[in-house]
Amino acid sequence: MASHHIVTLPGDGIGPEILAAATRALDAVGSFTYDERPFGGASIDEDGTALTDETIGACRAAGAVLLAAVGGPRWGSTDPNEPRPEQGLLGLRKALGLYANLRPVRPLPALYDASPLKRERIEGTDMLVVRELTGGIYFGAKTRTDDYASDLCEYTTAEIERIARVAFRAARTRVTSVDKMNVLETGRLWREVVMRVHAQEFPNIELEHQLVDSAAMKLIAAPRHFDVILADNMFGDILSDEAAMLTGSLGMLPSASLGDGGPGLFEPVHGSAPDIAGKGIANPLAMILSAALMLRHGFALEAEAAALESAVDRALARGLRTVDLGGSASTAEAIDAVLGELRA
Length: 344
Known about the structure:
Elements: E1 4-11, H1 15-29, E2 32-36, H2 41-47, H3 53-61, E3 64-69, H4 85-96, E4 100-105, H5 119-122, E5 127-132, E6 142-145, E7 148-151, H6 157-170, E8 174-179, H7 185-201, E9 206-211, H8 212-221, E10 228-231, H9 233-244, E11 254-258, E12 265-268, H10 285-299, H11 302-317, H12 331-343
Helix pairs in contact: 1-10, 1-12, 6-7, 8-9, 10-11, 11-12
């Protein structure tokens, strides 16, 4: 097998620990070369900015980018002139044109009892959240004075069209498009464009619309209802984190950020968890599952991706539980369990 080149961004907090676990898993299923770069808070400490031009260039030249986590209280200033780790993440998405974020949510049978919801409510849930990633309120113009702040939310027809197509292509039966069209002009445009793309290009897929507050309630009340959830940047961010709790922990949810050609970015949904950094108890499974998404979407290595996912499933079925899942397994014990399943 030819070697595949990956830029790795350990980032902050537990990032280096879980990324090291993921590369061990990757090396067990294929041949890869790694180019590690500082990112987020670590890059601020080293270079004064969360994302350097050199890191952007390295990422553009790679086959894929594997990111662990960014952020932490030491870079948590409210001063708008101070660099923040999250600026690196937004900047990298923009620089690589990564407008489509895919977050699969599939509670595993072994973890049904780890979810705060009853087993009968989450059993059989298998959904995909498709989040628009480079527009909306996170990227709109921002103003700030001592007693005033504003964040502009804006979308173009073209931005909505392309993310809608991603959602419809991924759907098996239904796309649930989420907006707030009763009060927001961006929501009204979102709904109009999604309806047009559906009618003209994907009439065989069912389309339903839900206001974001209604969708948030239904996600808990009837998660099996959802196939693909299509949402803008902010709503998709919030709903996918909510959906993560169906699996029992944010430590179980991977994601893929893709554009039109070029390398994708693959990262767990959870944060940097600075409170447990260095303790060796971080759950590496979402990081490993993000590496599996990288194999599938970044390198078209479906068999290898499936092998990683199956190894995680089997390790959990045999009783692996990290602290966030109510157990006591360390990060090292978790990756050893997954590697043991791969060898088996």
